[in-house]
Specification:
Radius of gyration: 30 Å
Order of helices and strands: HHHHHHHHHHHEEHHEHEEH
Largest sheet: 3 strands, mixed
Number of domains: 3
Strand order of the largest sheet: 3-4-5
Structural class: mainly alpha
Helix content: 40-55%
Number of strands: 5
Oligomer: single chain
Number of helices: 15
């Protein structure tokens, strides 16, 4: 725990470690140095324009220190800086007063970056540079946005990609995809059925009224990890209806054994509820049952283990660990099948 007098020196970035910061320092050193060198080889050493514009230093902070940030991705770096330069040049040409032109250039850059999904904080500095950069920038006109600004950005992003590949960081950052159902059904994966949904996240963000420097999918994944750890810590009550599969694959009592085998294998499941014409549960059948030599489902099915949707999910542990039951069928008061609770569902809920 840091001493109170050193609180100002505590990193405010969640998940930051000293090792990550050292890697970021090395990345910025290599990235900026090589960007200047490559642009010098491409442009020569003429005095007309700078080989590398100062805001690239700010872009390198995002690129190497926070590579998962939405503002550090290739399109925001390249598009945001280039468009901001164009905004600054336009403001300089439209407004003679440099003070007013500076404000107009930065404000216009924010608007354009927001509309084009290229929001990148150093873009404001690029727009300001285009306004007050001096005679060389003014003489270059709109080409300044492409050489050196866009060229600097392309080179820096390419070097960042190589560096992060070597250092084993994800860049460009792609949020981890949500796991799909293992049974080829429309149900979300077991771990995605509990506690909150996408609309809950959207409602919370709207309620807070703030913008956060994190991808929407990364935020969702982070919250689910927090939820899992909290559940393990508190062992709070969880009911069957929260985590059960709702898109249940079932079969009728008059179907033949081969049809049941096909469904079990196709959907990679171990239990098929057997239902009558009124959707009421009659029993269950699995691979072990259909291997008995019977030809009809009605003859091979066994009594089902059932529970109500409001029953405690943890109370099903005993049934699901008895070595015979692979799924508890969730039914209403008149035995209509509502869902299926499997060992996988319960383990995913436990985290």
């Amino acid at each position: 725990m840091p001493r109170p007098s050193f609180k100002l020196f505590v990193p405010i970035i969640a998940g930051a470690t000293l090792g990550d910061r050292m890697i970021a320092c090395l990345g910025a050193l290599v990235g900026i140095s090589l960007t200047g060198l490559i642009c010098a080889l491409a442009l020569g050493h003429g005095p007309a324009l700078p080989l590398i514009v100062a805001p690239m230093g700010a872009s390198s902070v995002l690129l190497f220190a926070t590579p998962a940030s939405p503002m550090a991705q290739p399109w925001p770096i390249i598009g945001g800086n280039t468009l901001s330069a164009l905004c600054g040049i336009l403001a300089h040409r439209l407004v003679p007063d440099p003070v007013l032109a500076s404000g107009l250039g930065v404000g216009l850059a924010i608007a354009v970056m927001s509309l084009t999904r290229t929001l990148h904080p150093p873009g404001g500095a690029v727009a300001l540079t285009a306004v007050i950069g001096g005679p060389a920038v003014t003489a270059a006109g709109f080409s300044f946005a492409f050489v050196p600004v866009a060229l600097n950005c392309v080179v820096l992003v390419a070097l960042g990609w190589v560096f992060h590949r070597v250092s084993r960081h994800s860049y460009p950052h792609v949020p981890a995809p949500q796991p799909a159902s293992a049974h080829a059904t429309q149900d979300p994966a077991p771990g995605l059925r509990t506690r909150f949904r996408d609309e809950d996240i959207d409602a919370a963000l709207l309620e807070l009224g703030e913008s956060f420097d994190i991808h929407r999918k990364d935020l969702e994944q982070l919250l689910r990890h927090i939820e899992r750890h909290a559940r393990v810590r508190t062992h709070g009550d969880l009911i069957c209806g929260d985590i059960m599969s709702r898109d249940v694959v079932s079969i009728g009592p008059d179907a033949d054994i081969q049809a049941a085998r096909g469904l079990l294998l196709e959907h990679n499941i171990r239990t098929l509820p057997v239902i009558d014409a009124s959707q009421r549960l009659l029993g269950t059948v699995g691979l072990r049952d259909i291997a008995s030599g019977k030809t009809r489902i009605a003859d091979a099915m066994v009594p089902a283990v059932t529970a109500s949707p409001s029953a405690s999910a943890f109370s099903q542990v005993e049934a699901l660990t008895n070595g015979r039951t692979h799924a508890v069928v969730i039914v209403d008061d008149v035995s209509h099948v509502l869902g299926l609770l499997t060992q996988t569902d319960l383990l995913a809920a436990l985290g």
